[in-house]
Amino acid sequence: MPLFNWLRDTFDLSRNHYDRVGHFAQGFIPVIIAREVLLKKSPLSRGRWLFFITCCICLSISAVYEFIEWWVAVYAGGAADAFLGLQGDVWDTQWDMFAALLGAIAAQVMLAKMHDKQMLLQ
Q1: What is the sign of the dihedral through the CA atoms of 106, 85, 73 and 95?
Q2: Distance (Å, rounded) from C-alpha 51 to C-alpha 63?
């Protein structure tokens, strides 16, 4: 991504962080969907367990994506480097899942009250 290449070059970053933004979204976007499904279809109520379980769901989605990346790497061999975007980072998989966790936490902290109000209107 050109914008993230510019950010890397301008701020002398070690890598292009576009991938991290995508993984943050991988946690931020599905967490409210998981939260609503759990509130409507399970005995869970609002609170710490709901927060924890929705984070776990988003982490599992991220882990599945990382498995897909791994399988592509195994299948494609050396051609997988462009798809994976590791950029020389041996901890890329762990950072990707951590970014998804941060996204899930951020979405719940920022949006849970609004989500609760919206669910009352339904």
Answers
A1: negative
A2: 18
Cβ atoms 24, 100 nearer than 8 A: yes
* pTM for the whole structure: 0.80
Mean predicted confidence (pLDDT) in 31-46: 95
Instruction: State the alpha helices, DSSP H only, in 77-91.
Output: 81-84
Q: Rounded to the nearest 5°, which phi and psi values hold at 14?
A: -80, -15
Position with higher pLDDT, 35 vs 12:
35
Return the residue matching tokens 């462009």.
Answer: 82
Kindly list the domain boundaries of the chain, sorted by start residue: 18-121
How far apart are the C-alpha atoms of 83 and 73, rounded to whole Å? 8
Buried b (16+ CB within 10 A) or exposed e, 31-65: bbebbeebbeeeeeeeeeebbeebbebbbebbeeb
Q: Cβ atoms within 10 A of the Cβ of 26, count?
A: 22
Residue 64 confidence (pLDDT) above 60: yes
